[in-house]
């Protein structure tokens, strides 16, 4: 019964979750993206459209900011003053950062977005009432709202195009919020396969659609708990700690030799995506 | 991956059932209802089909000619998504956006669904029997020599059949046309190295200087080069490769360069020779003959002509000298001029002087079966066809995989000259501009429905033969594979030879099994061999490769001085080949329209790129609608201003502005092909794409440019979002 | 200054005058009513269209997900606070002059809350799932997220609405008894008989009535404050630059009282004219009201300055950019209009001759509320347009006609409710006016008239 | 011996008070002073001086209501959170106190208000049937005194009322 439950496990319920003293148990999915390898070719983005049933909304809706690219490639210039962009551009793939302390989660009135046991920031479509508070509170603006009912909108999925829709992924109706899920449908399959074989998912066994497509392999994805996973090693090497809003390395003076950083870390969102700074040659 | 041992036919039956389930759910697949397929229920299905579990089948991506191996995820008889085939040396499991969009070509609602015969100005549906009958009559009635085929790049068994058919009717008119292809560079390479396209080893180079070769986006085999680029950036023992891009309009490769050098259009060759000169001055051993040839290309003169600063030329020289091996690539920007061959040759010369030949420029594997080797398309062939038509040497024209009416410059007046051809047959996927003009339209299978073999234009490692196999049952019963059609046509001509084959599948299997020895299956049972081939999707061929010419020679190199400005047409038009649109054949795939152009982030429209200076001179700002007028026509477009382009040029992307094709492409943007000036490369006769002179005038309105980029543009206004640091600081070797 | 009310009005006269407002009104009343209904019609149309087609038609974007609905929601919530102020706070302070005007002020509270509530619904992407927000027991142990300020809103507004309805009703019981005694036929008779609960004005009833009324008043004050600070925490609790400000709750409360008072002035003028309440809604009372409004206006101005200067002085660059953007970007005109209407215009109220100049006050009070509405919009619009993440900035996002239509209609809806209320219930508290008169006579009896009065 | 009811209406509150105090002074046989009820159009706290203060209990309801509301709210919210594990919000405890306190506060007030009203209705004996002896005048401007007494007392009542110039004396119809 609830009240007895409440009283018996009070101390548990008062625990911050997750935290250094209470890390994730088996899985903590995380990503690292090497901006020096990202060429901005958009393959990841299109792969995401294919995998996650994202609608191509068309010019008119796109112009109103109704686009649905869960993974968008942002293009930055570093040459405000110079005549030419003569050190090229910088491309940055931005998707839901699956924050450990996600601002979107606490504000959802109906609890449609929650933290899962393996560290994902889940979005429950059929619970969502569309208050859009989560997006308002997302510093990365990585959440996308179904402004229209795309399945019934002309030329979004005209027959026979709807046959391409991935049956593993819900086709969202109007009025719900959606965002990158780290291809949770793939993770689920991998996890259940592993479970049936009585082991845990090993590194490289499951790939996100964007990672799988990326021609330069700029995106790596895996389980942060597993010390053998590439991602864990990268985070370790770059001295980026998950539950920190300031990294110790930034204090030491040669910390700038490391490329790893997380975007808007200072907002204490604890993102699960680490980026590696882009490099530029000085000799030319 | 699937097991080798299963019966292909069962598979198709099951897919038939998959199709049927789809059909019953009203998705327009009628193949079962009209008894073309018979149904096998899932109760007695083959054991590799498990409802709700995706099965992967290997095939080959047909979105461009790179020939990446793909792996189609099939569920309940429907192909859902394409992944890269890890066993394919070209893309080793990776894919580009264009390839990903292949499923949308397959499921596209605007596909042609049954043969159409022109009746007045509309087509009426006819049966294939009737269609083929008609074709054989027309061909029979025509003089054998006057039957012509216009195709895109072809290879594999289709090419063989095509060849055989042409022989059968005794015609030699086969024109292979590609609107955007590095034909000039190929020719120049042939001269310089003895091969059209050497194998480029970015992964081994420490410095890559690319003269406008967009190898990360659109050039030759982008995914493969991207794979190499990754290795190149990681470097051998942590020495990060340095990329320098020389071009007048930034490509996505340029956007990733450590140094992007905006060069005055057409002077790429001058810079190359200037570098040779500077290198020899810096003490690099250069053949006397070459040194003599380039001695006039002094630092100042080169800097003056090209607009590249002395400082940068100096640094570049030092870089090339110190960090060896390097790799110099000539691409679109170099070849797109009347003296394109010269530019390319100069670049090749630079490579040879640097001693890269044999190190980063390797001999490509040769195809052991020349009859299947790809014919690479070019633009001059279209010119040839045009001439042949003009002397009315063409009575029956088969058109397949080419859309000349859309992609030929207005000056060629393709539409009119095609009217001179009495009977035009178009093998079409969409009702594109050329199909609209055809007398008979024959709908083709999508690359996910048909059988075939593909030989990539560019071998990543050894020679290879790619398999193309159906990933699902036909969507539209009225379509046929190119192979099947050719086979049918051949049966009309050489029944003795071909009537034995029930369909192209039978022919293909037979043909493959016949050469199984060469394909590494000599002591395997036919079916086992065939199944393994199908499951692998890629057959690696044992091949030799002959050495390259590495002796540098400047013989016959003379480069014109930088072009003088034309008063009435002050600007140069660079028709940009973008990763999404390429030559526009995939414009009807919404994913590609919606995925923002990497540099401008513009969607669903074309645009006119210009440098802030140019914009200021013209008094226009972003969003202004301007008219871009050349001697051969004018197009309108929205202005996009940014500093990734030389002030002397403006750029309009290709691939937009279709007048037909489908709901997603028709009327979207403007077609830059149309206004290209008829200027040709002197040596190869290729259309010089970058030679068009234009004037830009305001056309009144101003619109809000629909793009992903916000009002902040590429500016982070102080937030720490996209960070960049000097490569000197990090030790990549230590990184994971 | 003149007296709040004449002590020599016969009590019977009071009854007569007020009860008259329940009978056939001027034509103007019907005109107002019809206009209101038409406006509601517009809003309903827009909402149906939006419901059918999807939120997209309101023209918000993924980086700009909130707009007029939320802004107007805050506006109406704010409007509701003045009623409480007048009835509860002034009641505790025994400020007699509130008595003739607090009734309609309270009605205003109730109805603006009802209007505000609608905006929450209109704003939702899936209106048909709105019950998910309520905590109802269910088999799956699924509950709303009690951490969300929106859920706090839901609780707070529910509490506030029910409490203020009760407050309004309880305070009205004696007057309902009067209506019962004076109206002898028709559905009204039944209505009043039922609602007056058989009130006879016995000493026992009066005694409990007093304490009850007092207690609820005491509850209402902290409640009102909490309601608007919770609405403020919708923003203050988020991490949007320009929202994450400590001074938001008091700022919101002040703004609320401000717009409320302005609204009371407006309605004061209207009622005084439409129902001929000159005797009761007298100019001296108006003067007091205007002075109160002026004071609050200055408080609001101050808090505004505090907010800006703390942002300016603070080290949060993003918030600073945000502020600069508001003052200089595409939203600048509205921003400065807000400053003008909110802080400059009320200075007029400081001048004695304007304090009783009804036509002017009418116009000014309306503009004050325009200013307050702009304030709410300045909280929503620019913040979204210029948030943490430059790539997704969206400077030219402009609400579509659908949004404007619904906002426009909400004013009709409010007017409709209010006007109907004034027709069915006494909008001036009769028994309290009598008390007022009574106390005044007593006062006069005890001390001789001072010079300067009359 | 049957009881009779009388209602006297006065124009002036002071007269009414005077009358009451006299009724009290002259302890009329068969008349219990506590049965006297004063009916007035407005509240007259002053009457307590003559009526003697009669206790008010509403505030106890208030207290009980408020506490109950608060307590219920907290337990409901907290145990709901405790039993809804999917609702783990990153970085926050499963039962976070600050939000729950906000809700507790609101419900505290709601409970208080509701139960106060209940208390009011109970204490004031509402809703009630109107007694036969009631004059609309009372809700207008006159003060009514309702007394209850034996037959014998009636004359005495009347005497006092008339003495204090009662405008009108209603007598209960029937015996």
TrEMBL record, chain A:
<dbReference type="GO" id="GO:0016491">
    <property type="term" value="F:oxidoreductase activity"/>
</dbReference>
<dbReference type="Pfam" id="PF12838">
    <property type="entry name" value="Fer4_7"/>
</dbReference>
<protein>
    <submittedName>
        <fullName>Menaquinone reductase, iron-sulfur cluster-binding subunit</fullName>
        <ecNumber>1.97.-.-</ecNumber>
    </submittedName>
</protein>
<dbReference type="InterPro" id="IPR050954">
    <property type="entry name" value="ET_IronSulfur_Cluster-Binding"/>
</dbReference>
<keyword id="KW-0408">Iron</keyword>
<dbReference type="GO" id="GO:0051539">
    <property type="term" value="F:4 iron, 4 sulfur cluster binding"/>
</dbReference>
<dbReference type="InterPro" id="IPR017896">
    <property type="entry name" value="4Fe4S_Fe-S-bd"/>
</dbReference>
<keyword id="KW-0004">4Fe-4S</keyword>
<keyword id="KW-0479">Metal-binding</keyword>
<keyword id="KW-0560">Oxidoreductase</keyword>
<dbReference type="GO" id="GO:0046872">
    <property type="term" value="F:metal ion binding"/>
</dbReference>
<feature type="domain" description="4Fe-4S ferredoxin-type">
    <location>
        <begin position="29"/>
        <end position="59"/>
    </location>
</feature>
Automatic annotation (TrEMBL), chain B:
<dbReference type="InterPro" id="IPR006311">
    <property type="entry name" value="TAT_signal"/>
</dbReference>
<dbReference type="Pfam" id="PF04879">
    <property type="entry name" value="Molybdop_Fe4S4"/>
</dbReference>
<dbReference type="GO" id="GO:0043546">
    <property type="term" value="F:molybdopterin cofactor binding"/>
</dbReference>
<keyword id="KW-0411">Iron-sulfur</keyword>
<dbReference type="InterPro" id="IPR006657">
    <property type="entry name" value="MoPterin_dinucl-bd_dom"/>
</dbReference>
<dbReference type="InterPro" id="IPR050612">
    <property type="entry name" value="Prok_Mopterin_Oxidored"/>
</dbReference>
<feature type="domain" description="4Fe-4S Mo/W bis-MGD-type">
    <location>
        <begin position="54"/>
        <end position="110"/>
    </location>
</feature>
<keyword id="KW-0004">4Fe-4S</keyword>
<keyword id="KW-0479">Metal-binding</keyword>
<dbReference type="InterPro" id="IPR006656">
    <property type="entry name" value="Mopterin_OxRdtase"/>
</dbReference>
<keyword id="KW-0408">Iron</keyword>
<dbReference type="GO" id="GO:0046872">
    <property type="term" value="F:metal ion binding"/>
</dbReference>
From TrEMBL, chain C:
<comment type="similarity">
    <text>Belongs to the NrfD family.</text>
</comment>
<protein>
    <submittedName>
        <fullName>Molybdopterin oxidoreductase</fullName>
        <ecNumber>1.2.7.-</ecNumber>
    </submittedName>
</protein>
<feature type="transmembrane region" description="Helical">
    <location>
        <begin position="111"/>
        <end position="134"/>
    </location>
</feature>
<keyword id="KW-1133">Transmembrane helix</keyword>
<feature type="transmembrane region" description="Helical">
    <location>
        <begin position="251"/>
        <end position="271"/>
    </location>
</feature>
<feature type="transmembrane region" description="Helical">
    <location>
        <begin position="292"/>
        <end position="313"/>
    </location>
</feature>
<feature type="transmembrane region" description="Helical">
    <location>
        <begin position="211"/>
        <end position="231"/>
    </location>
</feature>
<feature type="transmembrane region" description="Helical">
    <location>
        <begin position="154"/>
        <end position="179"/>
    </location>
</feature>
<feature type="transmembrane region" description="Helical">
    <location>
        <begin position="66"/>
        <end position="90"/>
    </location>
</feature>
<dbReference type="GO" id="GO:0016491">
    <property type="term" value="F:oxidoreductase activity"/>
</dbReference>
<keyword id="KW-0560">Oxidoreductase</keyword>
<feature type="transmembrane region" description="Helical">
    <location>
        <begin position="333"/>
        <end position="351"/>
    </location>
</feature>
UniProtKB/TrEMBL annotation, chain D:
<feature type="transmembrane region" description="Helical">
    <location>
        <begin position="102"/>
        <end position="126"/>
    </location>
</feature>
<protein>
    <submittedName>
        <fullName>Putative Menaquinol oxidoreductase complex ACIII, DUF3341 subunit ActD</fullName>
    </submittedName>
</protein>
<feature type="transmembrane region" description="Helical">
    <location>
        <begin position="60"/>
        <end position="82"/>
    </location>
</feature>
<keyword id="KW-0812">Transmembrane</keyword>
<keyword id="KW-0472">Membrane</keyword>
<dbReference type="Pfam" id="PF11821">
    <property type="entry name" value="ActD"/>
</dbReference>
<dbReference type="InterPro" id="IPR021776">
    <property type="entry name" value="ActD"/>
</dbReference>
<keyword id="KW-1133">Transmembrane helix</keyword>
């Amino acid at each position: 019964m609830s009240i007895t439950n409440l009283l018996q496990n009070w101390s548990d319920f008062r625990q911050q979750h997750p935290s250094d003293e209470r890390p994730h148990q088996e899985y903590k999915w995380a990503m690292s993206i090497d901006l020096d390898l990202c060429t901005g070719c958009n393959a990841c983005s299109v792969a995401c459209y294919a995998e996650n049933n994202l609608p191509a909304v068309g010019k008119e809706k796109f112009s109103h900011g109704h686009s649905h690219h869960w993974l968008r490639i942002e293009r930055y210039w570093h040459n405000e003053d110079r005549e030419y962009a003569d050190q090229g551009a910088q491309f940055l793939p931005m998707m839901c950062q699956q924050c450990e302390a996600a601002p979107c989660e606490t504000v959802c009135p109906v609890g449609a977005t929650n933290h899962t046991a393996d560290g994902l920031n889940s979005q429950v479509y059929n619970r969502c009432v569309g208050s859009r508070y989560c997006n308002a509170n997302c510093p990365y603006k990585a959440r996308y709202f179904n402004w229209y009912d795309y399945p019934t909108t002309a030329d979004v999925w005209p027959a026979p195009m709807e046959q391409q829709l991935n049956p593993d992924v819900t086709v969202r109706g109007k009025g719900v919020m959606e965002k990158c899920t780290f291809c949770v449908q793939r993770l689920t399959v991998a996890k259940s396969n592993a479970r049936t074989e009585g082991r845990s998912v090993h590194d490289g066994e499951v790939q996100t659609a964007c990672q799988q497509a990326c021609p330069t392999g700029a995106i790596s994805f895996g389980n942060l708990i597993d010390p053998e996973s590439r991602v864990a090693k990268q985070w370790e090497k770059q001295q980026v700690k998950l539950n920190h809003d300031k990294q110790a390395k930034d204090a030491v003076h040669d910390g700038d030799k490391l490329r790893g950083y997380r975007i808007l870390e200072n907002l204490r969102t604890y993102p699960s995506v680490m980026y590696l700074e882009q490099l530029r040659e000085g000799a030319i | 991956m699937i097991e080798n041992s299963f019966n292909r036919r069962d598979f198709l039956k099951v897919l038939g059932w998959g199709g049927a389930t789809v059909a019953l759910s009203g998705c327009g697949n009628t193949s079962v209802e009209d008894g073309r397929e018979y149904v096998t229920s899932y109760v007695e299905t083959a054991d590799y089909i498990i409802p709700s579990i995706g099965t992967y089948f290997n095939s080959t991506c047909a979105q461009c000619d790179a020939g990446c191996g793909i792996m189609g995820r099939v569920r309940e008889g429907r192909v859902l998504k394409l992944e890269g085939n890890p066993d394919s040396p070209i893309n080793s499991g990776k894919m580009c956006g264009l390839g990903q969009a292949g499923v949308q070509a397959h499921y596209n609602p605007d596909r042609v669904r049954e043969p159409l015969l022109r009746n007045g100005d509309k087509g009426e549906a006819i049966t294939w029997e009737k269609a083929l009958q008609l074709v054989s009559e027309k061909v029979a009635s025509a003089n054998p020599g006057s039957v012509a085929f216009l195709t895109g790049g072809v290879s594999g068994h289709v090419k063989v059949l095509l060849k055989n058919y042409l022989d059968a009717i005794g015609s030699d008119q086969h024109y292979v046309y590609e609107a955007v292809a590095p034909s000039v560079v190929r020719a120049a390479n042939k001269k310089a190295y003895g091969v059209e396209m050497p194998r480029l080893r970015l992964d081994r180079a420490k410095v890559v200087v690319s003269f406008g070769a967009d190898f990360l986006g659109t050039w030759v085999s982008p995914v493969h080069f991207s794979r190499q680029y990754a290795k190149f950036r990681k470097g051998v023992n942590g020495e990060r490769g340095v990329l320098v891009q020389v071009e007048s309009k930034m490509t996505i490769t340029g956007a990733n360069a450590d140094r992007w050098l905006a060069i005055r259009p057409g002077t790429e060759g001058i810079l190359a020779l200037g570098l040779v000169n500077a290198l020899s001055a810096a003490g690099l051993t250069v053949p006397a003959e070459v040194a003599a040839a380039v001695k006039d290309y002094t630092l100042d003169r080169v800097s003056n002509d090209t607009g590249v600063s002395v400082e940068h030329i100096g640094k570049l020289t030092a870089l090339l000298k110190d960090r060896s091996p390097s790799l110099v690539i000539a691409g679109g920007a170099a070849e797109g001029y009347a003296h394109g061959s010269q530019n390319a040759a100069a670049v090749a010369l630079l490579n040879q002087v640097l001693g890269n030949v044999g190190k980063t420029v390797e001999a490509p594997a040769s195809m052991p079966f020349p009859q299947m080797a790809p014919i690479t398309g070019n633009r001059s062939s279209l010119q040839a066809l045009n001439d042949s038509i003009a002397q009315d040497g063409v009575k029956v024209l088969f058109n397949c995989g080419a859309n000349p009416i859309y992609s030929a410059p207005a000056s060629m007046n393709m539409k009119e000259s095609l009217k001179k051809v009495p009977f035009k047959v178009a093998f079409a996927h969409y009702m594109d501009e050329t199909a609209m003009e055809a007398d008979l339209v024959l709908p083709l299978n999508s690359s996910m429905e048909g059988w075939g073999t593909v030989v990539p234009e560019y071998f990543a490692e050894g020679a290879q033969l790619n398999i193309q196999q159906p990933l699902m049952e036909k969507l539209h019963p009225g379509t046929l594979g190119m192979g099947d059609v050719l086979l049918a046509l051949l049966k009309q001509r050489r029944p003795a030879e071909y009537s034995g084959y029930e369909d192209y599948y039978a022919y293909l299997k037979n043909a493959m099994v016949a050469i199984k020895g060469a394909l590494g299956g000599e002591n395997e049972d036919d079916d086992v061999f065939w199944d393994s081939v199908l499951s692998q999707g890629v057959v690696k061929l044992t091949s030799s490769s002959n050495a390259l010419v590495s002796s540098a020679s400047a013989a016959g190199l003379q480069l014109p001085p930088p072009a003088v400005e034309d008063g009435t047409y002050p600007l140069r038009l660079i028709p940009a080949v973008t990763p999404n649109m390429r030559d526009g054949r995939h414009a009807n795939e919404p994913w590609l329209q919606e995925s923002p152009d990497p540099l401008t982030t513009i969607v669903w429209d074309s645009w006119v790129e210009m440098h802030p200076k140019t914009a200021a001179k013209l008094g226009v700002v972003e969003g202004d609608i301007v008219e871009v007028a050349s001697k051969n026509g004018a197009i309108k477009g929205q202005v996009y201003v940014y500093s990734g382009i030389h002030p002397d040029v403006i750029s309009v992307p290709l691939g937009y502005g279709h007048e037909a094709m489908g709901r997603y492409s028709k009327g979207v943007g403007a077609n830059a092909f149309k206004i290209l000036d008829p200027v040709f490369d002197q040596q190869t006769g290729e259309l010089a794409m970058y030679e068009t002179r234009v004037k830009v005038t305001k056309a009144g309105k101003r619109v809000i440019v629909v793009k992903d980029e916000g009002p902040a543009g590429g500016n982070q206004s102080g937030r720490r979002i996209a960070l960049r640091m000097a490569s000197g600081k990090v030790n990549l070797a230590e990184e994971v | 200054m003149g007296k709040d009310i004449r002590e020599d009005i016969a009590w019977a006269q009071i009854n007569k005058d007020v009860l008259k407002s329940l009978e056939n009104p001027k034509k103007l009343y019907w005109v107002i009513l019809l206009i209101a209904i038409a406006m509601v019609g517009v809003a309903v149309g827009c909402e149906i269209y939006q419901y059918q087609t999807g939120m997209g038609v309101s023209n918000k974007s993924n980086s700009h997900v909130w707009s007029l609905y939320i802004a107007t929601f805050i506006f109406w919530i704010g409007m509701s606070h003045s009623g409480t102020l007048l009835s509860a706070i002034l009641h505790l302070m025994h400020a007699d002059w509130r008595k003739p005007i607090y009734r309609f002020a309270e009605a205003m509270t109730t109805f603006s809350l009802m209007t505000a509530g609608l905006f929450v619904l209109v704003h939702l992407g899936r209106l048909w799932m709105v019950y998910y927000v309520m905590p109802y027991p269910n088999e799956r142990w699924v509950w709303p997220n009690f951490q969300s300020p929106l859920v706090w809103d839901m609780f707070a507004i529910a509490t506030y609405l029910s409490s203020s309805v009760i407050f309004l009703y309880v305070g009205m019981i004696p007057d309902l008894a009067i209506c019962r005694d004076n109206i002898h036929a028709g559905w009204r008779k039944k209505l009043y008989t039922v609602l007056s609960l058989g009130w006879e004005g016995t000493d026992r009833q009066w005694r409990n009535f007093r304490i009850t009324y007092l207690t609820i008043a005491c509850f209402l004050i902290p409640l009102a404050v909490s309601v608007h600070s919770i609405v403020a925490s919708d923003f203050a609790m988020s991490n949007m630059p320009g929202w994450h400000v400590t001074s938001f709750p008091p700022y919101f409360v002040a703004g609320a009282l401000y717009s409320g008072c302005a609204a009371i002035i407006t309605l004061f003028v209207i009622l005084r004219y439409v129902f001929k309440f000159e005797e009761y809604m007298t100019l001296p009372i108006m003067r007091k009201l205007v002075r109160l409004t002026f004071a609050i206006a200055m408080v609001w101005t101050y808090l505004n300055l505090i907010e800006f200067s703390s942002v300016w002085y603070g080290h949060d660059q993003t918030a600073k950019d945000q502020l600069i953007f508001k003052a200089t970007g595409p939203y600048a005109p509205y921003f400065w209009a807000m400053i003008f209407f909110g802080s400059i215009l009320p200075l007029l109220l400081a001048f004695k001759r304007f304090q009783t100049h009804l036509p002017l006050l009418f116009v000014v009070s309306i503009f004050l509320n325009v200013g307050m509405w702009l304030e709410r919009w300045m909280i929503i619009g620019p913040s979204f347009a210029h948030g943490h993440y430059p790539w997704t900035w969206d400077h030219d996002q402009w609400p579509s006609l659908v949004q404007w239509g619904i906002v426009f209609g909400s004013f009709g809806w409010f007017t409709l409710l209010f006007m109907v209320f004034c027709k069915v219930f006494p909008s001036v508290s009769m028994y309290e006016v009598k008390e007022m008169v009574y106390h005044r006579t007593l006062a006069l009896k005890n001390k001789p008239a001072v010079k300067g009065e009359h | 011996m049957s009881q009779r009811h009388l209602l006297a209406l006065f124009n002036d509150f002071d007269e009414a008070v005077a009358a009451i105090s006299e009724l009290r002074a002259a302890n009329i046989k068969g008349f219990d002073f506590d049965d006297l009820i004063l009916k007035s159009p407005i509240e007259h706290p002053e009457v307590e001086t003559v009526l003697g203060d009669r206790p008010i209990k509403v505030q106890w309801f208030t207290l009980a209501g408020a506490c109950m509301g608060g307590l219920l709210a907290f337990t409901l919210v907290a145990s709901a959170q405790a039993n809804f594990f999917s609702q783990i919000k990153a970085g926050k405890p499963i039962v976070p106190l600050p939000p729950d306190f906000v809700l507790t506060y609101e419900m505290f007030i709601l409970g208080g208000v509701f139960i106060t009203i209940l208390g009011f209705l109970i204490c004031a004996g509402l809703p009630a049937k109107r007694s036969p002896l009631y004059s609309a005048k009372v809700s207008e401007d006159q003060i009514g005194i309702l007394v209850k007494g034996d037959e014998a007392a009636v004359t005495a009542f009347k005497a006092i009322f008339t003495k204090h110039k009662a405008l009108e004396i209603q007598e209960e119809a029937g015996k």
